[in-house]
Design a protein that fits this description.
Blueprint: E1 14-18, H1 22-33, E2 37-41, E3 56-59, H2 64-77, E4 80-83, E5 96-100, E6 103-107, H3 114-127, H4 132-148, H5 153-165, H6 168-173, H7 177-189, E7 197-202, H8 213-221, E8 224-227, H9 233-236, E9 244-247, H10 260-272, E10 276-281, H11 291-300, E11 304-308, H12 313-320, E12 334-338, H13 344-354, E13 357-361, H14 367-378, E14 383-388, E15 396-401, H15 405-411, E16 419-422, H16 425-428, E17 439-441
Parallel strand pairs: 1-2, 1-3, 3-4, 7-10, 7-11, 8-9, 8-10, 12-13
Antiparallel strand pairs: 5-6, 13-16, 14-15, 14-16, 15-17
Helix pairs in contact: 4-7, 13-14
């Protein structure tokens, strides 16, 4: 790392800007915002000695002679100088700045690409809303109060974490400043009586980039994450540095499976201990994810619960192959069911006959039987596709017909929890055209 990042206190300090163009004007304005006493000198007016007494100099003149003379003067006097577009004549680099006062985030590419620095600034500005400024001030007020009361550091840290987990930022975003400060004060004063909270969060089909922004935020803030077995390591890595991860996945009859009753009890236990818990479930928690059951249990136990939807694999899996669930002129309805449903065979016949597109989640274990039942109902030549690990680098998929789809899936060694898509949309999709009989794989 060549450049050491610092923040300079320029209040009432002399700063000099060389140049008279729009860039020089912008640099002078930023320095004034920082409280500096700014002198702007046009390139043709600069003379050696003009930098005397300055703390910082920005040379935006674009004049090579001025650049050289200003650099030599600043170096001799020990003044920090930045000569625009000349990294070899810079003792500091002006970063791109995200301002959420009192939060200031500086972004530098070490002079490699000011364009990328500006693009990163815009992205961070969109991630950190304007509420982060007043929220930081709020936390600062609570911090001063706790220090005055000689509250132990460990307890202070716990309070700050709870403030981050609370709904304070959304309150501030909505303009409810007084209510936010009152709620924060209550949380700080009653730290020993905190009630826990559970967020039932959908992790989407697998790719962590398909998580909602809200899901990412809650994952990072959680004390504990109870996650399904098939949640990707990349998604779990988005948890906070102090977040505890607990695997509670249920794997069809496996000895190490965790019962739903045990999961429910663990959620209630953690909430009773005052923890903020994220129950992370694949796809959407309310689409064959037992999220509704867990919600009811938690509500009955008096636990505060929030629900964050996820992208369901029922739609993401076909979309990953370019297969639309509905397509004008081909499919005007889609039905979603589970390969683990009770009385599945009878229900499949009925569903297949009334739906243009049928999606069967968790179909792999009984794929051969499911395909036979559906073939008898709607015809063995009906197009079908199977995709496992949809949206991940390890995704595998095959496209065929109900007559051969199970054999193709076996040949490609597609694993458990795969999704079956049945209907004319499979053959109508641009990506599957002409390859109905050919097994393919990604990753």
């Amino acid at each position: 790392m060549r450049y050491y990042p610092v923040y300079l206190d320029l209040m009432d300090q002399r700063a000099v800007v060389l140049g008279d163009g729009p860039v020089a004007t912008d640099k002078a304005a930023l320095l004034r915002e920082a409280g500096a006493v700014v002198t702007v000198i046009a390139a043709g007016d600069y003379r050696p000695g003009d930098l005397a007494g300055a703390r910082i100099v920005v040379d935006a003149s674009g004049d090579s002679k001025v650049n050289r003379l200003a650099w030599e003067e600043a170096e001799a006097a020990g003044i920090l100088i930045n000569v625009l577009d000349r990294p070899e004549q810079c003792r500091f680099i002006a970063p791109a700045i995200v301002r959420r006062d009192p939060v200031v985030i500086a972004i530098s590419t070490s002079g490699e690409s000011p364009f990328l620095a500006s693009q990163l600034r815009v992205r961070i500005e969109r991630l950190l809303g304007t509420e982060w400024g007043p929220f930081t001030a709020l936390v600062g007020r609570i911090r001063r109060r706790l220090r005055e009361q000689a509250v132990p550091i460990a307890t202070q840290t716990r309070v700050y974490r709870r403030l981050l987990q609370a709904d304070l930022r959304s309150m501030l975003r909505a303009g409810r400043t007084t209510a936010a400060y009152a709620h924060a004060a209550t949380l700080a004063e009653r730290s020993a009586q905190w009630r826990g909270r559970v967020a039932i969060v959908g992790a989407g089909p697998g790719d962590p980039e398909l998580l909602t922004l809200r899901a990412r935020e809650l994952l990072f803030d959680a004390d504990v994450v109870l996650h399904d077995a098939l949640i990707s390591p990349e998604t779990l890595a988005l948890s906070g540095p102090d977040t505890r991860l607990e695997a509670v996945g249920k794997r069809g009859g496996s000895a190490d499976s965790v019962s739903q009753e045990s999961i429910n009890a663990r959620l209630i236990e953690l909430a009773a201990d005052g923890h903020f818990v994220v129950r992370l479930k694949g796809g959407d928690p309310f689409v064959f994810g037992r999220g509704g059951e867990e919600l009811q249990v938690l509500v009955d136990a008096g636990v505060d619960v929030i629900v964050v939807p996820g992208i369901t694999s029922a739609l993401a899996a076909p979309a990953a192959l370019g297969i639309p669930a509905t397509l004008r002129g081909t499919s005007s309805s889609v039905t979603i069911t589970s390969g683990h449903s009770e009385d599945l065979d009878e229900r499949l016949v009925e569903l297949a006959r009334v739906s243009d597109t049928l999606v069967v989640l968790m179909a792999r274990a009984r794929l051969a039987q499911i395909a036979r039942v559906l073939a008898a109902a709607v015809g063995a030549s009906t197009p079908a596709a199977v995709v496992g690990n949809a949206t991940l680098a390890t995704e595998r998929h095959v496209i065929g017909t109900l007559a051969n789809i199970a054999a193709l899936a076996d040949r490609q060694q597609i694993q458990a929890a795969a999704t079956l898509i049945v209907g004319q949309v499979v053959s109508a999709a641009p990506r599957s055209e002409g390859v109905l009989e050919a097994p393919t794989a990604r990753g």
